[in-house]
Design a protein that fits this description.
Elements lengths: L1 E3 L14 H14 L5 E3 L5 E3 L1 H9 L4 E6 L4 H15 L4 H18 L1 H7 L24 H9 L3 H13 L2 H9 L6 H8 L3 H12 L6 H27 L20 H9 L9 H19 L5 H4 L7 H28 L5
Parallel strand pairs: 2-4
Antiparallel strand pairs: 1-4, 2-3
């Protein structure tokens, strides 16, 4: 049956057609004609064949051959999804999302299989390999049905479903819009990260700052270990009464060139004034400032270049608060010194 193209309705929310695929189909249709009609329901709503429809539009067709199906609602959507699995080169994220939606539809159409999937008993003994207008009862779980139709293992189906569930919306958006093509392995590994790290890892992969998720994990671990060591060193210096000197964070600086025996003897001298001096205070504070500049410099690297553009307004506000707290603490110390110093007249 030939239907006027302008009468065919395309539901909102459908996956956008791939321009390259539309061009290939248009070339093929122009040479060989439309070999497979598109599928619509009785209300002229498109069920399957979006790329073919777009292709004939580019050729200037006003009518197209259609198969009118009695499938409606969820059954029509299921048929559309199954065709997309077969005909379209889906990205790993699109594949997982579509599989997840297929699961929802399948178990809504066959509620007895949901019980089976969760460990319940089978009901019914019929199965149709190809989606038809009339859906029969089935004994197959969604996983088994999908594995057979897609030609993959049940384990792969479960893994793809779990990946789609675990991926955060932010990570999905980065993967979908990136110029870099993400492998199924990379997407699966990103989904296994903590939610607050998925976006960062996806951004770094998209920006080609890293090549694998393992590289991201290694960088993150080393960064955390480095910071932990720094904090431990400072805590150890404070606990042992030592100045927090630059030898802990970079090139060693000579704080006192005298031998250990001389220093110990001086400390044991009851007549020696061991109280702090302005020079010793400024020396310690100067080392702290150098340490601060060195550590904050960690964030001025290409590692974080891909992260900064992704900061949300809320996260930027947090950063502002933390920055202000640092400045306030330094100002408070300065005013304390200023107010207590002896005024020399």
């Amino acid at each position: 049956m030939r239907i006027a193209i302008q009468e065919i309705q395309v539901k909102e929310g459908r996956r956008s057609p791939d321009g390259g695929h539309v061009k290939e189909l248009a070339d093929s249709i122009q040479e060989f004609g439309l070999l497979n009609p598109i599928t619509i329901d009785q209300g002229n709503v498109l069920i399957a064949g979006l790329h073919r429809l777009e292709a004939v539009k580019t050729l200037g067709w006003t009518e197209v051959e259609c198969t009118v199906s009695s499938l409606e609602g969820l059954q029509a959507e299921m048929a559309e999804i199954d065709e997309n699995f077969i005909r379209n080169n889906l990205s790993p994220v699109e594949y997982g999302e579509m599989l997840l939606r297929r699961k929802e539809i399948y178990e809504a159409l066959h509620p007895e299989t949901k019980a089976t999937y969760e460990g319940g008993s089978f009901r019914g003994n019929q199965y149709q390999k190809v989606v038809a207008d009339k859906m029969s009862a089935t004994t197959k779980s969604f996983v088994k049905d999908s594995a057979e139709k897609l030609g993959i293992t049940p384990r792969t189906v479960r893994r793809q479903i779990q990946t789609a569930k675990n991926l955060t919306p932010e990570a999905k958006e980065i993967i979908k819009t990136a110029d870099t093509k993400f492998s199924k392995k990379a997407v699966t590994e990103i989904s296994g990260l903590e939610p607050d790290r998925q976006k960062e890892a996806a951004a770094l992969l998209a920006a080609k700052e890293i090549k694998t998720v393992d590289e991201y994990k290694t960088r993150k671990r080393r960064s955390e270990e480095s910071r932990t060591r720094t904090f431990e060193n400072v805590a150890q210096d404070v606990a042992q009464g030592r100045p927090r000197n630059a030898a802990r964070i970079g090139k060693p600086e000579i704080i006192d060139a005298r031998g250990t025996k001389e220093i110990v003897a001086e400390l044991k001298n009851p007549d020696k004034d061991c109280s702090g001096t302005p020079d010793s205070f400024l020396e310690e504070y100067g080392v702290f400032v150098k340490k601060f500049h060195k550590e904050i410099g960690w964030y001025d690297t290409s590692y974080y270049d891909a992260v900064f553009p992704l900061i949300t307004p809320g996260q930027l506000a947090r950063l502002r608060d933390m920055t202000d707290s640092i400045c306030s603490a330094a100002e408070e110390l300065f005013h304390k010194v200023e107010s207590r110093r002896n005024v020399i007249t």
